[in-house]
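Slide 14.
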Amino acid sequence: MSFSFPDWLEPHLLDDAVMGEAYASVPDERRALLKTSIARLWEWYGPSCCTAQRLERLFRGGFTAAEMRSPVGFAVFVCGADMNSPAQLLAALVPAIAAGVLHILAVKPCGTGWTQPQLVGLELAGVEMVAELDQDTLQRLLRELAQGGESGRLVYIDAEDAVSQVGKCSPGVLSLNLGKAAAVVRQGEGGNRFDLDALAFAQAGTRMTYFGDASDVDDSVFSCADREFEYALTQDASVAFLPAGDHSRAAAHFSAVMGPGHESSWIWTEIDANTFVDTRVTWSDGEES
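Slide 15: predicted structure.
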C-alpha cells in the first residue's frame, strides 16, 4: 500500500519562507550544535541499508518460519505546547529516519507553535512536513491515521492530552508516549566543563536541576540544589549531564548520562530505530511453497 498524508493537511503545513526565516535567525554556532546532535544520533542508530528484509528458516521441528521487516508507512511526532527542546525533538525523529521511514510529520499546537531552533533542527534533519494544528484538527488527523489501515507510529513528546483522545489504533499502528523530560546537571573541576548556554539552548524548556554554585547559572533556566552528589542520584530525571568521573555511579540511576561536549545530545531509551520497523511473522508446517 502506498501511503500519503490526507490532502486536507496541506494548508496547515509551514511553508519554505517560515523555515527560511527560522534558519536565518539561529546563529551559526547554534546550528552547529544541532548538526552535531544529528550526526551523533545518526551514528548511534546506524541507518538501515535495506528498504525491506525477508528471512526464512526451516527448523528441526519440521516447520518453516518467515520474518518480513520493513519501515512503517508513516511516523507522526506530536509535541506538547511546552516541548521546546530541539535536541529532544531530534532524538525522537532521527531513529525513524535511520529506520528508513519516508513519510514523517512533526506537529505542534497552534498558538504556542514551534521555536526557531526546533524548526532549524527539522530542516537540518530533512523533515519537510511540519505543521501547527488546533486541537480539533489534530485529533481528526490522529484518528484518521490511527484507524487508516497503514502501519505507522504516533509518537507523543510531552503531549499526554493528545494521547488520551486518539482511541483505539488499528493493527500496525502503535502509540508511544515519551512523556516530559527532566535532567540533572553538575559541573566538574578543571577545564572540562559544560557550556551551560549551549545546554540551555539545546534542552530549552526542560526541567533542569543544577548541582553547584547558583551564581553559575541563569535561574530562569536551571533550578539550583546546593546538595551533595548522592542527592543528585535520587532525582526523578531521565538524563544526567555529569563529568566523566561520575558516569559509572550515575549510570545505574539515569537512562542516559552525558559528559561535557554533549550539551546538544539527548537519548530517548524508550525507542530506537527498530521501533519504526514493521515486523510480520508466518509459521507453517514443512517448507513454504
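Speaker note: Residues 7-180+269-283 form a domain with the Rossmann fold fold (CATH 3.40.50.1980).
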